[in-house]
Design goal:
Domain D-serine dehydratase-like: 262-367
Protein name: D-serine deaminase, pyridoxal phosphate-dependent
Strand content: 15-25%
CATH topology of the largest domain: TIM Barrel
Number of strands: 18
Keywords: Lyase
CATH class of the largest domain: Alpha Beta
GO biological process, one term: D-serine catabolic process
Low-confidence stretches: none
CATH superfamily of the largest domain: Alanine racemase
GO molecular function: D-serine ammonia-lyase activity
Radius of gyration: 22 Å
Shape: elongated
Largest sheet: 8 strands, parallel
Mean pLDDT: 96
Length: 388
């Protein structure tokens, strides 16, 4: 799982670029912030591993011990089960051909909850449960803001789907995700999104209970609402994932500060086009992703902000364009380009940590609490889970 750096890769000056870097000090700080908040709110924290997709990062969550987690792929569920995690929510709508893998995990003693938002799905989950001779825990997805999937709390399909699952001993609870909170640009908008997320999930659970169906789990969460919620009465668990790394979208929402970003990508300057005001690097969208999540925010950060190798922001320098293997850096607001010769290594802070992390097989790990000059020492290399 964890690999130590080879003698040929002692600092961030050594590996071939581009490569992803995690600052474990910042990640631990981010993790503790939300863990403490969940404790104050009196709910279980079920971290979402979809951003990090790493057993090593998961080990930071609970002092090296396993804990309840959320995943976005069955490949994650299987890898985390192999790593000893036995309480897993697979938070993507289920389809029939994936159920054999879920059942295989259940037979291993791993609780894997599936997610659904239709009577059709409830029927095939209940049928598969009967054929397998064991309950398949299922949560009904609730739509709190029109972001993606889910049933509204007043949808006639909600109690009908609930009854099908209940009668098959599969009904585990309800789950909602305030995806539109990523467009809540003020603290008050985020607070209201968190309140609506809670109210919607609790209303759905109460409707099922009123129809005689116990609802054990009421699950809510997104990174913005998890940090904005003031009252989670009626909720049993809180989910979030991006917070382990954070990114420029979250910084643009003031959920975190730029200095909290734990993920970056090291690139190398490979050319200059002074006639266009460009510095060219070897880190294009294959290293950073095509995500432009800050484009709709008050401050567009292009494809990412630029720091030196030690992690200090270079003022007004932005990655403004990307082709497959080339990144273009330009100066903001007509300022002069810094003098960065060919061979200079830089770090790019990403718009969307999930998308950028997905471009890489693993992370080179540094610890900014142990010093960063002139180039941070690589403490370890952590692998990522890939595939579906």
């Amino acid at each position: 799982m964890t690999t130590t750096p080879s003698p040929a890769a002692r600092t961030l000056m050594d590996p071939d670029t581009p490569f992803a870097v995690v600052d474990v000090h910042k990640s631990l700080r981010n993790i503790e912030r939300l863990r403490a908040r969940a404790g104050r709110l009196g709910v279980t924290l079920r971290p979402h591993m979809k951003t990090a997709k790493s057993l090593d990062v998961a080990a930071l969550l609970n002092d090296g011990n396993t804990c309840p987690i959320t995943v976005s792929t069955l490949a994650e569920a299987e890898a985390f089960a192999d790593g000893g995690y036995i309480d897993i929510t697979y938070a993507v709508g289920i389809d029939p051909h994936k159920l054999p893998r879920v059942i295989a995990l259940l037979r291993r003693g791993v609780t894997v909850r599936v997610l659904l938002d239709s009577i059709e799905q409830a029927v095939f989950v209940a049928e598969a449960s009967g054929q397998a001779g064991l309950p398949i825990p299922a949560q009904i997805e609730i739509d709190c803001d029109g972001h993606r999937g889910g049933l509204k709390p007043d949808d006639p399909a909600l109690p009908e789907a609930g009854r099908i699952l209940h009668d098959a001993a599969c009904l585990d609870g309800v789950l909602t995700h305030a995806g539109e909170s990523y467009f809540a640009y003020s603290a008050e908008e985020q607070r209201l999104a968190a309140q609506n997320e809670r109210d919607t999930a609790v209303a759905a659970a109460e409707r099922l209970r009123a129809a005689g169906m116990p609802v054990a789990c009421v699950s809510v969460g997104s990174t913005p609402t998890a940090h904005a919620a003031e009252d989670l009465t009626g909720v049993t668990e809180l989910r979030a994932g991006n917070y382990m790394f954070f990114d420029l979208v979250m910084a643009g929402l003031d959920v975190c500060q730029v200095q909290d970003l734990a993920l970056s990508v090291v690139v190398t300057v490979i050319g200059h086009r002074p006639e266009y005001g460009w510095i060219v690097t070897d880190g294009g969208w294959m290293a950073m992703s095509r995500d432009r999540g800050t484009a709709a925010q008050a401050q567009d950060q292009g494809y990412g902000l630029v720091t030196d190798l030690a992690g200090h922001l270079i003022p007004n320098l932005v990655m403004t364009a990307a082709s497959q293997e080339h990144g273009t850096l330009t100066a903001r607001d007509g300022t002069d380009l810094p003098d960065l010769p060919v061979g200079t290594r830089l770090r790019i802070l990403p718009n969307h940590a999930c998308a950028t992390a997905a471009q890489h097989h693993g992370y080179h790990v540094v610890d900014s609490s142990k010093g960063t000059e002139p180039a941070p020492v690589i403490q370890a290399r952590w692998s990522r889970i890939t595939g579906w």
